[in-house]
Amino acid sequence: MASVDRPGQGGVLPFFVYGTLRPGEVNHRLFLRGRTTAEEPARLPGAVLYEGPGYPYAVERAGSEIAGSLITPAPGAYAELLASLDLLEEYAGPGSPGNVYDRVAREAVRGDGGRVRAWVYLAAAPLAVRLARSGREIPGGDWLRR
């Protein structure tokens, strides 16, 4: 899967969120409330979830999928929301050695089976390797049901 990091290349994309940014969770209230036009259940194929210190990490893995929500930013809120979420997720740009997460464009699956490209924050490569070796996987890939 190719990643896209510039909104101009992929257009304005919704966000696939799978942890504390999901509706009802603490970071949803802090970062997303009042800044979205749609929030719907969705799945992200090709990923698994690992426990983190109070939040999960998604890591790519073929044959698996995780549960989350597809978040569509409100008109005029996209640029500010993108910057805020990059800061929250400790994402400084493509290939930055300080990244905790990498923001990449992936295909999410809506509840009705429709597919849509969305931004998702995946564990940065060095962390993903550590998690695959010794992390605690969240059974079923759903942070809310852990």
Attribute tags:
146 residues; alpha+beta; Hypothetical upf0131 protein ytfp; five-stranded antiparallel sheet; 4 helices; 5 strands; globular
Kindly identify the CATH topology. Answer: Hypothetical upf0131 protein ytfp
CATH architecture: Roll
Q: Total helix count? A: 4
- Outline the biggest β-sheet: 5 strands, antiparallel
Structural class: alpha+beta
Describe the structure.
With 146 residues, this protein is of the alpha+beta class. It has one domain (7-135): Gamma-glutamyl cyclotransferase-like (Hypothetical upf0131 protein ytfp, Roll). Helices cover 22% and strands 38% of the residues. The chain is globular, with a radius of gyration of 14 Å.
Summarize the structure.
The protein contains four helices and five strands; from the N terminus they run αβαββαββα. By secondary structure, it is α+β, with helices and mostly antiparallel strands. The chain has a single domain (7-135), classed as Gamma-glutamyl cyclotransferase-like (Hypothetical upf0131 protein ytfp), CATH 3.10.490.
